[in-house]
Amino acid sequence: MSEENSELLGAGRKAAVIIASTSAARGEAADTTGPILVDWLRGRGYETPEAIVVRDGEPVGDALKQLLVDTPEADRPRVIVTSGGTGLAPDDRTPEFTAELLERQSPGLIYAMWRKGLESTSSAVMSRGVAGVRGRSFVINFPGSKGGVKDGITVIDDLLEHIQTSVEDTTDHGPRV
């Protein structure tokens, strides 16, 4: 790793992207949000493989469980971003599967994404995503649209370093006033 790369936020850390899209998983549609998310995380220095594309519903839960439970703790991604499965359709169950695996939730992050999304579309509030932590992994659900993903990145990118240092407990909180 070069000295320049060692200064990147994600240096030495893994990330993963899960895309919940039945049509993309079947090969009937292109995954349009996975490449955006993977490029963003790689640009921040995270070792990020190509997106995992699964059908909506139970396969999302299986993919999350594989990364957060079945993978040895030392090898787990520090950041997991999902895209899709956050709407109101019967098989949009990404938030439910995510919440089952989290130890602590951070609803303010989702609220901030809603606020950002509302700047361009009223449908932003229909996203039911959750965000939170399991162990040393931060997990967040982004909407399945390119616009929703771009809004999510805008919000989370500014907070990612603080999220990471908090989850890893490497921040100096200083004196409590």
Topology readout:
Layout: H1 3-6, E1 15-20, H2 22-25, H3 34-43, E2 52-54, H4 58-70, E3 79-83, H5 94-101, E4 104-105, H6 107-118, E5 131-134, E6 137-142, H7 146-167
Parallel strand pairs: 1-2, 1-3, 3-6
Antiparallel strand pairs: 4-5, 5-6
Helix pairs in contact: 4-5, 6-7
Walkthrough of the structure:
Pfam families: MoCF_biosynth (PF00994). This is MoaB/Mog domain-containing protein. Keywords: Molybdenum cofactor biosynthesis. Residues 16-163 form the MoaB/Mog domain. Pathway: Cofactor biosynthesis; molybdopterin biosynthesis. The chain has 177 residues and is an alpha/beta fold. It has helices spanning 3-6, 22-25, 34-43, 58-70, 94-101, 107-118, 146-167; strands spanning 15-20, 52-54, 79-83, 104-105, 131-134, 137-142. It contains seven helices and six strands; from the N terminus they run αβααβαβαβαββα. The chain has a single domain (3-166), classed as MoaB/Mog-like domain (Molybdenum Cofactor Biosythetic Enzyme, Chain A). β5 and β6 form a beta hairpin. α4 (58-70) packs parallel to α5. The chain is globular and about 40 Å long. 41% of the residues lie in helices and 15% in strands. The N and C termini lie far apart (40 Å). The chain has a six-stranded mixed beta sheet with strand order 2-1-3-6-5-4, with helices on both faces.
